[in-house]
Write a structure and sequence with these properties.
The structure holds two protein chains of two kinds. In chain A, helix 4 packs parallel to helix 5. In chain A, helix 5 links the parallel strand 3 and strand 4. Chain A is globular and about 55 Å long. Helix content of chain A is 35%, strand content 12%. By secondary structure, chain B is an all-beta fold. Chain B has a single domain, classed as Rieske [2Fe-2S] iron-sulphur domain (Rieske Iron-sulfur Protein), CATH 2.102.10.10. Chain B is built from one helix and ten strands. Chain B has a four-stranded antiparallel beta sheet, with no helix packed on it. In chain B, strand 2 and strand 3 form a beta hairpin. The longest helix of chain B is centred in the last third of the chain and has 4 residues. The chains are: A alpha/beta, B mainly beta. The interface between A and B is medium-sized, with 15 and 18 residues.
Chain lengths: 373, 139
């Protein structure tokens, strides 16, 4: 085995991870501990409203992020107090130092993005982005973040992207895979337009507002069903984004699927390609096979990676997609999918390792290149 | 190898916009009349061998961006009768996969009976008459 490959991977401006290559973590979670954490970032009116209405005592955790669920926090990544993911020191020791990643892109999943009140949702998203900038990014230069936006009002979401666009520590925009409507619908286009304009990929994360079931014909009974069914929602997102013409309208837009499970994608695209050939006149803006469009625009983070036993699993995925550029390394900290640092579903000496760990992320996120100002 | 001239149909059997399936030298061939010009395609979709002659004749649906629909070249494409794959009647080329998927296209022409009757030709089902025009395929 060639053990020198990792050692020689380090180049100017790069720092090797535990895998021997430089690494970017494209899905590390940070969590709002409680509503009162963001109270200092609200204006006087909203601060008073939150107190008067008792909102300051709520949690606003998304159902899919239930803090006590085993999958939400690996035992050694649970802080002594509070929610997994809420502690900067633990993110530092577990991810930034623990894996030696050069950069971690933080995703903040939070109920504030899906409130029924559009104004309140916009205000708390602005507050949480200010909180991320002041209490995370300002203290940790290896950290980057995703912009949290009010998903129920794409115009206000676009305003928040605009407001945040000058701060290059924010490198993507977070949406949920199972929002109010199929992801590619035109009412979401203000978000895509702003994201494309400012070089921000859309991070589409597992989860939703729970206004709709994950399973198309109704709510299941168990958390298990809901968690596994996230993959179905991602398939729907592929169909919607391509069919509605999001990538025809926004040719420079990149979408990163986070915590999707990954390996459902080839079968989805085989059927999508085949069916498109028979009815493609419905969507004449789709001028190439859907698989080719997906290959150019969609990226997937690697944890969790649903795989059968056997060798060359990630390699086979790349062969089926005819691409080695779609997978982006993630730890999915603090979620519990693996032990220790076994986060890379690939032999570190594979020629793919450097691409998956580092190069693909650098190609996907324009803001990881160049200076912060 | 020299080609043989086959008389495929009488022109008046296939008015503009219509099509007719013929058998020539053991092959099923779909003849199409687009505004007076005749085109001949193998009547076998490269996908699962469905009949193109039985398919719907359509135009080319295009869009420069989502929601901006336009139809051009109406009557110049055929959708396979089985799974809807679209082919350019003029060339046999697949719209979705022009590089790898193509239907066999044959040269079709119109010849007056007065010229044909001198031969040589093969007319499996037709008695050639001086006063008629014929669709002719060389293969």
């Amino acid at each position: 085995m060639d053990m020198s490959r990792g050692a020689t991977a380090e180049r100017a401006g790069e720092r090797a991870s535990v895998f021997g290559h430089p690494a970017i973590d494209c899905d590390a979670h940070i969590v709002v501990p409680a509503i009162n954490s963001i109270m200092p970032y609200l204006d006087a009116y909203w601060r008073q409203q939150f107190l008067n209405r008792g909102i300051d005592r709520l949690s606003w955790s998304l159902t899919s992020e239930a803090p006590n669920s085993p999958i939400s926090g690996r035992p050694d990544w649970r802080p002594a107090q509070g929610k997994p993911g809420a502690d900067l020191a633990m993110l530092r020791s577990a991810v930034l130092d623990g894996f030696g990643v050069q950069t971690a892109i933080a995703t903040c999943l939070w109920g504030g993005a899906v409130l029924h009140s559009e104004d309140m949702s916009a205000v708390v998203c602005t507050a949480v982005n200010d909180w991320i900038a002041a209490e995370w990014l300002a203290h940790e230069p290896r950290l980057r973040a995703s912009i949290v936006v009010p998903l129920g009002n794409p115009e206000l979401a676009a305003e928040e992207i605009e407001r945040r666009s000058g701060d290059r520590r924010f490198v993507q925009v977070t949406m949920l895979v199972a929002g109010e409507t199929p992801l590619g619908k035109r009412h979401n286009w203000p978000i895509f337009r702003a994201a494309e304009k400012y070089g921000l990929p859309i991070g589409v994360h597992a989860g939703g507002a729970y206004h709709h079931p994950m399973m198309a014909n109704g709510f299941g009974s168990y958390f298990l069903e809901d968690y596994v069914a996230q993959a179905f929602a991602f398939e729907s997102a592929v169909l919607s984004l391509v069919s509605e013409g999001v990538f025809a309208k926004f040719p420079d837009l990149k979408v990163v699927f986070q915590e999707s499970g990954v390996t459902w994608l080839p079968a989805c695209l085989w059927r999508f390609n085949k069916t498109w050939r028979g009815v493609r006149a419905e969507i004449p803006w789709v001028k190439r096979p859907p698989k080719d469009i997906v290959r150019d625009h969609i990226r997937l983070t690697t944890q969790p990676f649903d795989e059968p036993d056997g060798a060359r699993r990630l390699e086979r995925f790349c062969e089926m997609l005819d691409s080695d550029e779609m997978l982006l390394f993630s730890t999915d900290y603090p979620h519990w999918h693996y032990e220790g640092t076994e986060a890379l579903p690939l032999d570190r000496n594979s020629p793919l390792a450097r691409k998956v760990l580092y190069e693909n992320a650098m190609a996907t996120y324009p803001r990881l290149n160049g200076s912060l100002t | 190898m020299s080609k043989t001239r086959h008389i495929a149909a009488r022109v008046d059997e296939i008015p503009p916009g219509s099509r007719k399936k013929v058998a020539i030298a053991g092959r099923d061939i779909a003849l199409f009349n687009i505004a007076g010009d005749f085109f001949a395609l193998g009547d076998k979709c490269p996908h699962e061998s469905g009949s193109l002659c039985a398919g719907r004749i359509i135009g080319l649906a295009e869009a420069d961006e989502p929601g901006k629909y336009r139809l051009s070249r109406d009557g110049e494409f055929v959708k396979c009768s089985w799974h809807g794959w679209e082919f350019d009647i003029r060339t046999g080329q697949s719209w979705c996969d022009p590089a790898n998927t193509r239907v066999r296209a044959y040269e079709a022409s119109i010849e007056p009976g007065a010229a044909l009757i001198k031969g040589p030709y093969v007319a499996e089902t037709y008695a050639v008459r001086v006063e008629e025009n014929y669709v002719v395929i060389d293969l």
